[in-house]
Amino acid sequence: MSNYSxxxxxAGFSKAISDSYPDLKNLTDEINSEYVSEQSSIAIHYNKxxxxxxxxxxxxxxxxxxxxxPYKTDVQVSLxxxxxxxxxxxxxxxxNSMRSKFQNFLVPCNHIxxxxxxxxxxxxxxxxxxxxxxLIYRSYEAYNKAIIQGGFVNFYxxxxxxxxxxxxxxxxxxxxxxSKPAGKIHLSSMPNIIKLHGSINWVLTDYNTxxxxxxxxxxxxxxxxxxxxxxxxxxxxxxxxxxxxxxxxIAFESLKKAKKIFIYGFSFPQTxxxxxxxxxxxxxxxxxxxxxxxxxxxxxxxEGSECYAKDRYENIFKGYDLxxxxxxxxxxxxxxxxxxxx
Length: 342
Prior knowledge:
There is one protein chain. This protein is α/β, with parallel strands linked by helices. It folds into two domains: 1-20 and 101-342, 3-Layer(aba) Sandwich (Rossmann fold); 22-97. Helix content is 40%, strand content 14%. It is built from 13 helices and twelve strands. The strands form three sheets. Strands 6-2-1-10-11-12 form a six-stranded parallel β-sheet, sandwiched between helices. A three-stranded antiparallel β-sheet has the order 3-4-5.
């Protein structure tokens, strides 16, 4: 607890590790092209009934589809919900197609990932993908020269902090190489991954506020869609889910006691007020006056750039020690090299 560090990861984290990782524009373009070529009833609804302006940003589109606006008819609400679930599946399929490449992604961020699991750092993330979980899994195996019995599913069995969930075992078994005795990991020693916008391997058994969030691997049902939430949503029934509330509460408590905060690949867009309020509310109660490190591209601090966001950071974290050293062209390489010195 003497050096309690919290990581906050946006989409820029995955993109920095591999430029092949899809960003918001990539996802938007690919989903648009898929619906143009499809002839299903959902595709017809997408092409005929959805305003073109909403199709330029997949997260704005998901927000519109999940909003039960008063002028929508019952039929429109049902069609929009079906389209929302179908888009969620397409997003999940796109991210899942990247899994075969995860093994190659560890090298450029090996020290960062090792630091996270070695210090059990809470990782608050807005990403739907499974990249962070897989990187921690592969880093632990590589560093300890061990093979996890049952593979990834058994290793990372609790990124959800579910109020209903009961974990059957406290330990994960290891098969250690070189004929050494088998070992085991205590689950509580691994970093908690707090996914505020859901995950492509989460499913809801019932799409309502009390619906139980489970892992896809445990509840195989092709009719269920991934539980992912666009960040522009603020007041919606989806945010009332008890599992998601629990995740937001854990994120709040983690920030409230942090001594160092590393914000990687996030620019605090104007639309995502909930994240701004999360930070400001938690830090108001934090007695440690934490130092905040911003890791991003150089565009974030370049006033002439469309991605300039330094002024937003300075406004949100007024009075706090902000370090923008790692907003540069080789930000991942530099941060990976220097993290253990901070």
